[in-house]
Design goal:
Blueprint lengths: L7 H19 L4 H4 L10 H15 L9 H9 L6 H13 L4 H21 L2 H5 L1 E4 L2 E4 H23 L8 H21 L7 E7 L4 E8 L1 E5 L8 E6 H8 L13 E4 L1 H8 L7
Parallel strand pairs: 3-6
Antiparallel strand pairs: 1-2, 3-4, 4-5, 6-7
């Protein structure tokens, strides 16, 4: 059973900054941009914001509205709703779909203020306590780091939908990155089936340059340094890497945007199997 100790101050500050960044982005949207489709099937910009409100509302203790019969039918027929979490998210989104953008922003501002106050009142010991999280039993601090990742990815969704450049590579992006890196060994070993003894390097470029190394010795694991030259080096934009891990796009759509040095078959197997987000 995992138990990740996460520094309360760093995570709460990053999460607060992330909420503010999204609020600032929303203030400049036109009506047409609010209706723009995102990379998430079935969701517009408006729907993504409603989802964020719903997620934080649940953390204040609120329950999602009960759908009427008509809404239940729509949810049952929605091909993008694949599991219980997806259905729960959709109930929140459906409940706010008719709200004008100004009212939606007011709700977003209210619930994030409530969450800031709740987090401020917590101690490091509270953050270390075990709780239920999207990845199973874990520390509350890990849960909040997952919230940083989720909100950061949704900022990227919003920016992509309205044609704005990606978010910056500051502290909140760095914390979100930790969730991605934590899944990399599983993705390379189990999803991409990298063979025993493989050495893989992923070089991300752009606003968040990183060198990520994975060694397969019995099981695949992220390591600080490789013990020899990599079998393959994968070079790609950091935000494209994030989109791939979040399932916002897939490898075949970006054959011209990724550079593979070394074992091309292994490299593309990794690129095509990076999705880990629910």
């Amino acid at each position: 059973m995992s138990h990740t100790v996460v520094a309360k101050e760093a995570v709460t500050e990053a999460l607060s900054e992330q909420w503010s960044a999204i609020e600032g982005l929303l203030g400049g949207l036109t009506d047409a941009q609010w209706r723009a489709a995102t990379a998430l099937p079935g969701w517009t910009v408006h729907d993504v914001v409603a989802h964020l409100i719903g997620a934080e509302s649940m953390l204040t203790g609120q329950q999602p509205p009960q759908p009427d019969v008509q809404t239940q039918t729509r949810l049952a027929e929605a091909t993008h709703v694949r599991n219980e979490i997806g259905a729960l998210n959709e109930r929140w989104v459906e409940s706010m779909r008719a709200l004008p953008p100004a009212e939606l922003v007011d709700r977003y501002r209210t619930v994030t203020a409530q969450r800031r106050a709740a987090l401020e009142a917590m101690t490091q010991a509270d953050f270390d306590d075990q709780t239920v999280t999207p990845v199973g039993p874990e520390s509350y601090g890990r849960f909040m780091r997952i919230r940083v990742y989720d909100c950061w990815m949704h900022e990227l969704d919003l920016r992509d939908a309205v044609g704005l450049p990606g978010p910056d590579g500051g502290p909140r992006a760095a914390l979100a990155w930790e969730e991605i890196v934590g899944a990399l060994g599983f993705l390379v070993g189990k999803r991409a089936h990298a063979p025993e003894g493989s050495r893989i390097t992923i070089e991300t470029v752009g606003p968040l340059p990183r060198s990520l190394h994975v060694a397969v010795d019995g099981r695949a694991a992220v390591v600080e340094h490789l013990d020899g030259p990599p079998d393959v080096t994968i070079v790609l934009d950091a935000w494209l890497f994030a989109r791939l891990t979040g399932g916002r796009t897939d490898g075949p759509a970006h054959r011209d945007d990724v550079e593979i040095l070394g074992d091309h078959q292994l490299g593309w197997a990794v690129v095509d199997n990076l999705r880990f987000a629910i």
